[in-house]
Each structure stands twice: as structure tokens, then as C-alpha cells.
Write the C-alpha cells for this entry.
Amino acid sequence: QLFLDRIKQHDSGINSFITLTEELALAQAKTADDARAAGNAGPLTGIPIAHKDIFCTQGIKTSCASKMLDNFIAPYNATVVEKLNSSGTVTLGKTNMDEFAMGSSNETSFYGSVKNPWNTEYVPGGSSGGSAAAVAARLTPAATGTDTGGSIRQPASLCGITGLKPTYGRISRWGMIAFASSLDQAGPMTQTAEDAALLLNSMAGFDPKDSTSTDKTVPDFTADLGNSLEGLRIGLPKQYFDSGLNADVENVVQDAIKQYEKMGARIIEIELPNTHLSIPAYYVVAPAEASSNLSRFDGVRFGYRCDDPADLEDLYKRSRGEGFGEEVKRRIMIGTYALSAGYYDAYYLKAQKVRRLIKNEFDRAFADVDVIMGPTSPNAGFKLGEKASDPLSMYLSDIYTISVNMAGLPGISIPAGISSGLPVGLQIIGNYFDEAKLLNVAHRFQ
Ligand code: GLN
């Protein structure tokens, strides 16, 4: 009730929620109370949570912040939602996001942009901007997000919270509306690394309904949180401290790294020379997969349907033309072009080869270091409207996060300090399935 009241009181100025699920929340809270009274409470019993509106929630509107799905009530729960429900969490509602998770500022939402609670003239980041803003404004203690090219870590950085993108395959994608299937991964967005570990314990694990989820055993991610960092080898990629990085952000990040040196960590300079290719390769691979995934929204089976279609072709054209926003259409056009006969080899295949090079150079780096550190985002933030009409400058703001998705690695952004009144995130990247170490390293900073 406390959090529902806070949302009602404060969210009109932030716009972080698309749907409030008050009735469900109170019913789940009652069940949690009963579990506690019966001595059956786990660590997440009764903990309020908000779900990004990309996760299907049974009987509840699941819009992906698109006009296309404004009328869509999901008939089932995403595996992530199902798992968190069974751990006893209490669903407060569904959070705002960039339309179909395409964006870095939350300005592409059909429901209007989200404001950064630190300064409402600034964007909260995206695409999981509603989840990040809601946690930052203490409207919920935790939220779920998804990260295809930085959508958990970048808004976490801009809103001063903790956001973890686990290894690709660690968490089931079933019921998570697909953007780019080979890159999409769900993760927790919380105040602290310890909270992220508790949520990951519930969210992770093999799911027969997702063929890309892995059957690796899920450790207790809280078990390593007390480990010493003596001797930890931290790689600093030269390419993450280039001329594109804002000087104040660099200072905050360097100060944070010095803290780790004081804790006994050793700094090793490394090279990730293909970093500059990650954005161009991503903007072939992600739109290509998106153009295929979004072909299901055809006005026939679910979602938006245009008025009075003249024939089937008109139904497709106008339903998609009217239902999708500008950025989504841009991605569908790019992706369809890149996949078309004659261009496939030149673009999609080439981008996949670049992707392999990026993965290989991370593999080489992790032969010498335990974690990689750097900024999450080149700037502490930007104003609403500042980049909205310039997609290329928006795309470039993901320079430090996208290669992690291209390689399928886990990465976390934690609050490292403040620059001109706005929070700055430190990004820590781990080796495959090394989330426990990543969370320990993140936890020790706080
Ligand atoms: N900003 C990137 C994009 O627009 C990443 C989004 C995401 O991770 N979902 O595609």
C-alpha cells in the first residue's frame, strides 16, 4: 500500500508506469502475509516489484509501449514473471519503456516520455527507463528490465541505480516480447547489488520453453557477496576512455576504480580494438532480427487493426502503418533491407562476422583479467528532446554497452558518483556465467 500510494502521489511528474495493478498487488500482498504467518516466507516474499511492459502478464495489459499493443491483454505470464510470482513478489504494475525496447531515452513510448527523477528536464535513459525511474524515485524497491544493447545498464546509470544484464541464456526469454532474439536478455533493476543477486536467484534458470536458455546450474548469487577483492585483476580497455567520453564522467569512473585498487585489486590495461564496430554491426543485426520478429503484428491475430480495411493488403499496410511509431518503422525498414536477397551477404553476414571478432577479443581479454571496468555511458545524461530528432547521435550513446550484448557477456552498472547533479554509472563486465563474481565486485563498492 505504501508503494501504491507513493506511485499515485509522485508518478504524474515522472510517468514511469503504464499500468497500475492495485488489485493484484493487494491480493499478492495478502498471500505473502499468509505465507509469512505460516512460516513459509522466502527472501522475496512480499517484496513489491514492477515489470517492464515488455513482459507478458496474464490478464493484464502488455503494451510494449506501442499503439500496436495498446489493446493487448496477455493470456499468459512470461517465465520471469511466473518465477518472481512464485517467489512471493507483489506486482505493483507495468513500467513505461521505449516502444518495443527501441531507444535510449524513453522518448519513443506511445504513452509519452519518462522523466528522470533526479532532474525532470532530463531523460531517464532507455529502453527500460520506466523501471529505472521508478526504482530511483522509490516508487518500487525493484523492477525488471531487458537489455538488447544497453537497455538495463544505461537507464540504471542515468538514474543512479543498479542494473544487471546477465549472460545471454541465463534467464528465459519466454513471454518477453522479442526485439532482437540473439541479443535480448532480462535482468533485475534495483537499489543495490545484493538486491540484484536476490532477484537473479529467482529469475535465472533453464526453461524448456526457451531453446536458448541454458541448463547450467544456478548458484546462490548472494553466496559470494562477502568475498575479498584482494588480487582481483581489473581490465581497463583503452577504447572505453577515448575522446568521446565526457571528462567529468571519466573522473567519477576513475575515482571509482581507485577505490577498487584500495581494496587490493590490480589494474591491467587491455585492448578491445573492435569496439568502434559494435554500433554499426548492432544496427544491422538488431534491426534484421526485429524486422522478422515484428512481422507477427499484422492486424489479424492480436493488437491494433485499422478501421474498414478494403482488402487483406490494405489491412496489413494500414494496421502496421498506423500501429507502429517512427523509430520502430525505421528499424523494420533497415532490417528488411539488410536481409533482402543480394544484400544479405554484404550486411547481415558481414555484421555476424564482426560480432564474432568482438566476442573473440573479449575472450582474449578474459584470459588475463577477472572483470573489465569502464563507463556505462559517455555522458551523465541528456535533456528531453536533445537527441530525439537525431537517431545517429542517440545510437552512439550506447558505445560502451552494445559490444557486451554482441558477445553475450554479463554486465552491470552501479552508481559510482555524481556529475553536475546527475548520477554516473560504473560498468563492470564479467566473463560468461560469472554473475556471482560481478555481483560481489559491485557489492563491495557500496
Ligand atoms: N538503445 C539500443 C537500441 O535502441 C538498445 C536498446 C535495448 O537494449 N533494448 O536498440
